[in-house]
Amino acid sequence: MLIDYSEKIAIKDLNIFFSLSNFNNSENTKTIAKMNQTHSNKSIFIDRLSKEYEDCDGIFTSNKDLVLEVSTADCLPIFFADKNFFGVVHAGWKGLAEGIIENSIGLLTKNGFLLDNTHILIGPSIRKDHFEVKEDVARLFDNKFLISKNEKTFLSLQDIVINQLNSFNIYDIIDVEECTYSTQHYHSYRRDKTDKRIKGRIYWDE
Questions:
Q1: pLDDT at position 23
Q2: Phi (first) and psi of residue 154, to 5 degrees
Q3: 67 near 195, Cβ under 8 Å?
Q4: What is the DSSP letter of 7?
Q5: What are the backbone angles phi and psi of residue 6, rounded to the nearest 5°?
Q6: Which of 94, 95, 159, 187 makes an SS bond possible with 73, Cβ 3.0 to 4.6 Å?
Q7: Which residues, 6 or more positions from 192, have their beta carbon under 8 angstroms from its beta carbon?
Q8: pLDDT tens digits for 112-132?
């Protein structure tokens, strides 16, 4: 099952797709760059080659011959789209608490990119109604991102991401508002303890 979010970004020839299983790579001749995701706060910028990158949860490039891939099952796939670069970040509570958004922005700035026309898409991920956290996680974030219900505490990861991006004057943000936990056809680790993952890709047409 393929889900196309390209029109939500509306940048000509830029594609954002999700698959509930592995992509059929025979249909894509481009080089695919995958991350070995570890819930870290590390992002990297690449310009060529095809391999899996260790200890990395954000990947960016300006090379339109590359396809960037992310794997999720509740965490947030955060796509960055710009005419001069593109990328994707895998972010859960740990990465957000430890600064993966800030580090990604710093990486792009270090590489000379302006973010005035950067578009963001937050893909399917666990929503605040279902992301219960304990005190050790809750105290890492401002109370405005927390919801108390039936003596339980829930956290909005999407609101944290939007707030952090806004702090860098990035406001062109689309949240698809689809919950992996409550939508049965999405893989959810919280719901099923599954080892299956949703694959997300961002790439340019030839």
A1: 78
A2: -120, 150
A3: no
A4: H
A5: -60, -40
A6: 187
A7: none
A8: 999 999 999 999 999 999 999
Alpha carbon dihedral 95, 97, 100, 102, in 10-degree steps, equals 170
DSSP letter at 8 equals H
pLDDT at 194 over 80: yes
Of 70, 130, 128, 143, whose CA–CA distance to 104 is shortest? 70
Contact 68, 33 (CB under 8 A): yes
Give 22-25's long-range contacts (Cβ < 8 A, gap of 24+): 22/199, 23/69, 23/199, 23/201
What is the predicted pLDDT for the residue at 51? 60
Summarised one tens digit per residue, pLDDT across range 31-86 is 899 999 999 999 999 987 656 677 899 999 999 999 999 999 999 999 999 999 99
Whole-angstrom distance, CA of residue 54 vs CA of residue 89:
14
In which order are the strands placed within the sheet that holds 43-46? Answer: 43-46, 58-61, 86-91, 76-81, 119-122, 173-175
Handedness of CA 61, 65, 71, 75 (dihedral sign): positive
Q: State the pTM of this model.
A: 0.94
> Would you say 45 and 109 are in contact if contact means Cβ atoms under 8 Å apart?
no
Q: Span 4-19, mean pLDDT?
A: 92
Nearest-angstrom CA–CA distance, 103 and 81:
17
